[in-house]
Amino acid sequence: MNAKDLTHLYWFCQAVRHGGFAAASEHIAVSAPTLSRAVSSLERSLGEKLLHRNAKQFQLTAAGEQYVAQFSGQFDTLSRSWQGINNQHAELSGDIHISCPEPFADFIVQPIAIDFMVAHPKVNIHVKFAADTERFFDDRIDLAMVTRATKTPYLVQKMLFETPLSLGASRDYLEKHGTPKCVEDLNQHRLIAANTLTAWHFEENDEHKRVMLNPRYSVNSLRLATQAACKGVGICLLPAHALATFVEKDALTQVLKEVTCQKGRGYLVWSDRTLIPARVAKFRDLIVDALTNGPVFLSKLGQ
């Protein structure tokens, strides 16, 4: 096997990993037509058909399955070894593009980013506020911190934490509009949405209940949504850690204490399981380490 065949074999394994030439092309910076021609060349070199090609599916032949089983893992091992050498010896440089909700940027990403740029002067970091992965590829994001599991294909995700949520409102609001006695009462109240959720989910009296959101006020910032709740705009769903801080200050009152609210979650998302640049991998690992003890930072929202 020559170097050309080895390259084509790697591209073939990547096409299989990502489910097609178009998807693989976004990860390895090689056009889909080039990948297709490379696999055809590899088939001629091997004298065996590796793929059943048609417009609707990307299906391996028996020979294709055998080559993937034998070589894909070896390429992964080689990639990890290569990345390990780079992490040890190469000076980190280049850009890191990150998207995350505002509280994540305030208390997690920015402190890490500042120290990271001091330690690695040739790395530039760019942060955008977003709570999902809708524009992950359009904005060329390297790492995304999100509050819902992504459904975007070809992304890898790791759950960073899970935290209880609670409902809160100001005393002024409750005096003017009354205090809800059950989940159904929320449909008659002014609700504040702090993200892109379309519904809130609860457990009440051993029964699952859902409130579809038609918010009086929505803002893609937990900090601003909580401020609005403190000003009497309506009822907000927020992390229990954060609500406790506001309750201590008498800025908010917990609503429907006996009801179990849905869990809040945080995920870290990136675009390739093995070929992530060393600078991105190092920054990713720092985020994971910072959240080892859970989302303690959420209690700082009330400071």
UniProtKB/TrEMBL annotation:
Keyword Cell wall biogenesis/degradation: no
Entry-linked Pfam families: HTH_1 (PF00126), LysR_substrate (PF03466)
GO biological process: DNA-templated transcription
Sequence ranges assigned to domain HTH lysR-type in this UniProt record: 1-61
Keywords for this protein: DNA-binding, Transcription, Transcription regulation
Single annotated GO MF: sequence-specific DNA binding
Highest taxon listed in the record's lineage: Bacteria
Family assignment from sequence similarity: Belongs to the LysR transcriptional regulatory family.
Protein name per its UniProtKB record: HTH lysR-type domain-containing protein
Organism, scientific name: Paraglaciecola polaris LMG 21857
